[in-house]
């Protein structure tokens, strides 16, 4: 699918299978999410630009590659996005973090922003927006609308599972934002859950109902 990368690394697929199982405990789910997010982070950053820097090893001077440009921003869509942050920050500890809270107003059906924090200079940084589930796509679309309103234009979206319906809507609204996911599942059910999915990601990682 155009603009969509399915991360099919065997470790990612194996861990995802355990996360899907209904008998996986909250502690197990959380640990796997941290592990899998490290692997997802590796894949979503694999084509970042490098620049050469002059350094000195104990033996001699050399030109060696380092990441080009400003530090990355990981933007977490609250609350489940936070589950992906931990592992990603382990891999890129210098990344800046943005938190975005959006909810759907039942009357207007519009996405309403209730929390937004991001570095001032997001226009100059690569932003990786994270949310484990791309279901209807509405929160991801709204969160990226908010980032773009503040000047962001270099954005990628990373999730664990996506529904075809969510991908279609997301790509229609933000064709410039590539999507990375570990799986494209069958469909969305009438309650907006991804099928077969893994249930409510926030509830599974925090042990709520
Ligand atoms: N959000 C979830 O946590 N799970 C789904 O299946 C859909 C949206």
From TrEMBL:
Q: Which CDD domains match?
A: PRTases_typeI (cd06223)
GO terms of biological process kind: UMP salvage; uracil salvage
Q: Which top-rank group of organisms is this from?
A: Bacteria
How is the activity of this chain controlled? Answer: Allosterically activated by GTP.
Entry EC number(s): 2.4.2.9
Catalysed reactions, semicolon-separated: UMP + diphosphate = 5-phospho-alpha-D-ribose 1-diphosphate + uracil
Q: Which protein are we looking at?
A: Uracil phosphoribosyltransferase
């Amino acid at each position: 699918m155009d603009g969509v990368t399915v991360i099919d690394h065997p470790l990612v697929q194996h861990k995802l299978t355990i996360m899907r199982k209904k008998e996986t405990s909250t502690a197990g789910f959380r640990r796997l999410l941290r592990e899998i997010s490290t692997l997802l982070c590796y894949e979503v950053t694999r084509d970042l630009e490098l620049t050469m820097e002059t350094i000195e090893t104990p033996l001699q001077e050399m030109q060696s590659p380092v990441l080009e440009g400003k530090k990355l921003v990981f933007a977490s869509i609250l609350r489940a996005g936070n589950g992906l942050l931990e592992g990603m920050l382990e891999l890129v500890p210098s990344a800046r973090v943005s938190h975005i809270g959006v909810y759907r107003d039942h009357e207007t059906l519009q996405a309403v922003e209730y929390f937004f924090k991001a570095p001032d200079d997001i226009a100059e940084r690569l932003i990786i927006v994270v949310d484990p589930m791309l279901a209807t796509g509405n929160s991801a679309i709204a969160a990226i609308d908010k980032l773009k309103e503040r000047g962001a234009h270099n954005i990628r979206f990373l999730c664990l599972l996506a529904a075809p319906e969510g991908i279609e809507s997301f790509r229609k609204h933000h064709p410039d934002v590539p999507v990375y996911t570990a799986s494209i599942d069958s469909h969305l059910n009438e309650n907006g859950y991804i099928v077969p999915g893994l249930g409510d990601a926030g509830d599974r990682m925090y042990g709520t109902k």
